[in-house]
Amino acid sequence: MSMSPAANEVISTPPAGCFPCAPGMVPPLDFTMAFQPIVDVETRSVFAWEALLRGRQHQLAREVLGLVAHADLYAFDQSCQIKAIEMAVRLGIARSGASVSINFMPGAVDHPKNCIQTTLETATRVGLPMNQIIFELTEDERVGNRGHLQSVFSEYRRHGLRTAIDDFGAGYAGLSLLAEFQPDVVKIDRALINGIDRNGAARSIVGAIVDVCRSLEMIVVAEGIERTREAAVLADLGVRYMQGFLFARPAFEALAEPAYEVMTA
Q1: Fold entry, domain 32-264
Q2: Is the pLDDT reported for residue 225 higher than 70?
Q3: Which of 14, 44, 68, 189 could be bridged to 170 by S-S, CB 3.0 to 4.6 A?
Q4: Which of 252, 256, 244, 255 is nearest to 31 (CA)?
């Protein structure tokens, strides 16, 4: 969507057609977050914590999202970002130097310059540096307006926020997303990771993805790792950042200590 205000102007009221975005919005239902680490297997430290939507009774994200009406989509997406940032800081992520990785819904971002303001204000208020925030776009979500998504990514980067494509290799767009949006982080889908130690084709594909991302200076994360053999193959392919039950399951409103020793088991 094109904009007429200057690039550094903060719009105080939403343009016509935007979802309501007043500060202090009331979320459509009660929810919380679980956190799962993305580990750096070389330094045995946490690179980032992914904030995962949960219901108060430990319901998974799909159950919670199924209760959100379309009219509440923007308010809920904003509330999720606020909750993730506030809880991350309360749990000590900002002090650790690790990032918090937040899933976002492109369809809920009607006007990027406006929609990012609440998130920026929240991060500033609680003391979370912008470069410790990563926004993840799921690749298997159809994006009808590529120009709009490009403006979202550009606006996030303008403020020092980092971007990621989640579930890469399992969705609709493939390598064209890397060419168009050049995210900071690419997360390889678990479908390619599961059993990679027994699947030569998957090894070749993941190796090619790693090579492409390295040439584009993008960080590669392998997700959904459950077995030591999978982690070993990925390390041999040059994957440094990993996520999965092998290291830690999502912890409800907490940060679980990753099991780094699995790499030498």
Answers
A1: TIM Barrel (3.20.20)
A2: yes
A3: 189
A4: 252
